[in-house]
Amino acid sequence: MALSPEHFELFKKHLRETCGSSIACPTCGQSLWSIDGPVVMLEYSVELESAVINGKGAPVVVMTCTHCYFVRQFAWLPILGHKVTFAAPAEDDSDVQR
Q: Is the pLDDT of residue 57 over 60?
């Protein structure tokens, strides 16, 4: 699903304010991205050779490096201005923001 022109501008504004003018791919170093979303990323668990999808998910905007196809995801609801409560991090979370 493509972002509307208004949502695309909102996402670009978010990127400029939080990431700066250029975002290099952590895998290949290029700065050429394809942007798509919002899409819903489903929560799933893997059991042996199958995946179990339980229907929970969160909308994200997806950026894909057009050189190596590395994928970045951005939570969409906070960018829209919605208050979001994230699940409590694991015990060893000294570098995780709450």
A: yes
Please, what's the largest Cα pairwise distance for the chain? Answer: 43
Amino acid at 15: L
Q: Is the separation of the CB atoms in 83 and 74 below 8 Å?
A: no
- CA 61, CA 35: separation in Å to the nearest integer? 7
What is the model's pTM?
0.69
One-letter identity of residue 50: S
Do 64 and 71 meet the contact criterion of CB atoms below 8 Å apart? yes
C-alpha neighbours within 13 Å on the C-beta side of residue 36:
9
pLDDT at 6: 92
| Domain segments of the chain as ranges | 5-80
